[in-house]
Specification:
alpha/beta; Alpha-D-Glucose-1,6-Bisphosphate, Chain A, domain 3; 2 domains; eight-stranded mixed beta sheet; five-stranded mixed beta sheet; 22% strand
Length: 376
Amino acid sequence: MAPAFGTSGLRGLVSDLTDELVRDYVRAFLTTVTVTAVYVGRDLRESSPRISQAVISAVREAGLIAVDCRAVPTPALACASLQNQAAAIMVTGSHIPADRNGLKFYTPLGEITKRDEATINAALGAVFVADDGRVEAAEVLGSFAKRYVDAFGANALKGLRVGVYQHSSVARDLLVDVIAQLGAIAVPLGRSENFVPVDTEAVDPDTRQLLAQWCQDHELDAIVSTDGDADRPMVADATGQVIAGDVLGVLTALDLGAEAVVTPINANSMVEKVGFAEVRFTRIGSPYVIAGMDEYRGRQVVGFEPNGGFLLGFDAYGGATKALPTRDCMLPILAPLCMAARRGVKIAELVAELPQIFTAADRLKDIPTPQSKAFT
């Protein structure tokens, strides 16, 4: 199965993501942007450092500055590239197994669109001969953490005990740091040196049982986590019950005072019943959500997906939190927790106040792409 674009980025087997193929896709992407620098990040998969070096090599071949951000969350990388009017490439397979990996591309305006994907595919085979670019290093985690501490305040979670399921998330230390800076006691849990493909949209029964046990053993008010590249959140209440990503999305949108919400057609229809001025449903995939948000440019628009990834389309919290129109894990983790803390209630009580429309999600593994496409 050759690497191909899916709902968010290029993905394929590690064995198929050769250095030459990676460089080819990077060269093709660079024909679509006019920039002087490209920020490059990666997740914690074993294959990611090698693929990241292939990306950096291709950027230098194009005569551009490659800014090596090392292991960082995808939204932190995107945020840094937006702030610096640079392109960005994240080496990650998100939540899929460790024998797979991929690339996510960002222009200075944010995540690429489906139209951009078609342009990249058409440009495969592009050749650059400049090779006079430089490799620089960048530290992006500090400013990304500050983004949320400034938004919610140093005591926003004071008095809470919050578990952080670290596994192999690229945000595992960042989450502990931010939770602590917001005043809570952060309890690190389940750190793994091997890659763990956590799917926040279809949390397996063993993990759910583990979350419940941790809540009991450590007397936690909540447990938080992310997928591998930290663009999807996972939040469990004080009993270990996982809160669905689209429910987190609704709570976050309410906390932000959003006017318009854009979300895929498979999201919980409860979003239509909580008082947003406009709700628009799209096809499944963050590029479609971004395209839908563009139609509400200039308004307080947000987007979210059932996997929990949240897209912010305006400057929020008095301008402290700038727009970030790509999937983010931090905002839908922190906004509901801080909302509950302000009101002096448990996060499960916030969920119970919403219209009770229930959904369920799971996944089928290793389905050949031609067969799965027959259902789209």
